[in-house]
Each structure stands twice: as C-alpha cells, then as structure tokens.
Design brief:
Largest sheet: 7 strands, parallel
Helix content: 40-55%
Number of strands: 7
Structural class: alpha/beta
Low-confidence stretches: none
Distance between the termini: 45 Å
Radius of gyration: 18 Å
Mean pLDDT: 92
Order of helices and strands: EHEHEHEHEHEHHE
Length: 260
C-alpha cells in the first residue's frame, strides 16, 4: 500500500530577514508551503519580492503580527491554514536585542530597564510559548509535527556580545523545549533548539561588523557563520528523517563553543 504523501506546511516567525528569511527559502526549496511573519510590513514586503524573484512555483504567504499577542498569532495561523492547510511545522526565529547609541553594543546590565527586559522576553521567549499554544495541540492530534526554536550561543556559554535580556531569553527557549517534549510525548511531534554562533545578519552588523575580526579569531573553521548555515540545520530537523531527534540543543557555531 502506497504511503500517503502529505503536503508539508510551515510557519516561520521572524521570517522577513536574516536567519528567518534563509529558513523560509530552505523550506520552500524542500517543497513546503510557508507562511512567514514579522512586525515590519516593509521587511515582509521586501522578502516577498525577493522570494518571487528567486523562486519558481513556490507557495508562500507573508504576514505581519506581534508574536506575543495571542489574538494576532491566531489570525496568522488562521490565514496560513486557510491558504495552505493545517500547519505541521513551526520555526520560531523571532528575536530582538537592545543596543546602545552605537547600534552594536548591548545595553549594559546596570542600564537595562525593566521595560527593555520585558520587551525582549516578550519577543524572544513569550512569543514562542504563544505560537506553540496555537499550533502544538493540532500537531499532537494529527500525530505529527516539528517545532524548532532558534536560540543562541549566548545561552550556551558566557555571552561576549549579547545583552543580559537576550541571553536569558534564549536560554529560556531550551527550557521551554524540554517542557514541551513531555507535553507532546508519544504523539510524533519533536521539539528542538538550534544555537547559532556569530552569524552575519543585520543584528550583528553584517559583513562589516566591528566585532567580526575578534569573532573570527575564536572560530576554528576560520569564518563567520551565514544564515544559510542555520537554515540548513533547520531543514534537516523539520524533515521526516529527523523523527528520532527530540529535545536536542544543536550548536551551529563553527566550533566556537564545544560542550562536553
């Protein structure tokens, strides 16, 4: 009897640029239908234009919304499901990191306001919980699902560049994942976390970032990471072949941090 081929549908937060957009591209290349979203309508429109230029026949939907708002996430899930069908894959890539006036240096701990702390946790951690509450029950009911959180090397070792709120929020993702693998036990749903190292994105200052030379000196492979390095790992983790990888924290950092 031939196994039924299901059309895979993914939802990607923070998909308008950087790592998130690279993930969208990888999933489209793998044959997924992809809904992606972020707060900036301008970034989403720019991403859509780029995808239309560089992909042929791919089905995607760009949306805007606040990850920490249950109402807005419900709308995003509803629109994506209406367009493509049930969502079986969630990639949570949204993240912010407050900087001082130079735009690159993290806000020092003693200068971090409660408002900034709460804003970072709302986007980087609470939003992941809200998205999982919206999607995990239906994945469990259908007996298949993939959830991938994009964490950070800052949550794995002493942060060199990231601020306190960012490091704490990204560390929280692995704790959330551990809790959710118990919730989804026996349902065919896996939840994993990727911890990228120094990746060339807008957040890290791009190729000309002032911290890049020092970062390269710490990375055994001798180069900075690219969004595609992270996206390739996501592509594997959301595949049906990765069904026995569950609750893992996978470092994608060129060897900068190697846990025992």
């Amino acid at each position: 009897m031939t196994k039924e081929i299901r059309q895979r549908v993914a939802l990607v937060s923070g998909g308008g640029s950087g790592i998130g957009l690279a993930i969208v591209k990888q999933l489209l290349a793998a044959g997924f239908h992809v809904g992606f979203f972020g707060r900036s309508r301008e970034k989403i429109r720019t991403a859509e234009a780029e995808l239309r230029t560089h992909t042929t026949g791919a089905k995607f939907l760009g949306l805007t919304g606040d990850v920490s708002s249950k109402a807005e996430i419900a709308e995003i899930v509803g629109e994506t499901t209406e367009r493509f069908g049930p969502i079986d894959t969630l990639v949570y890539s949204a993240g912010i990191s407050p900087k001082i006036a130079d735009g690159m240096t993290a806000v020092p701990f003693n200068a971090l306001s409660v408002e900034e702390w709460n804003a970072v946790l709302a986007t980087n951690l609470t939003g992941a919980m809200v998205c999982c509450q919206a999607l995990l029950p239906q994945m469990m009911e259908r007996r298949f699902g993939r959830v991938v959180f994009v964490g950070s090397i800052a949550a794995r070792t002493v942060p060199r560049l990231a601020g306190t709120a960012y490091a704490a929020s990204k560390a929280g993702l692995s704790g959330l994942a551990r809790s959710l693998i118990a919730t989804a036990s026996g349902t065919g749903v896996t939840i994993n976390t990727i911890a990228p190292g120094h990746i060339v994105t807008e957040m890290t200052g791009g190729q000309a970032g002032q911290h890049n030379p020092d970062a390269i000196s710490r990375i055994p492979v001798g180069r900075l990471g690219l969004p595609e390095d992270v996206a390739s790992m996501v592509r594997y983790l959301v595949s049906e072949n990765a069904g026995f990888v569950n609750g893992a924290v996978i470092d994608v950092n060129g060897g900068e941090f190697t846990p025992l």
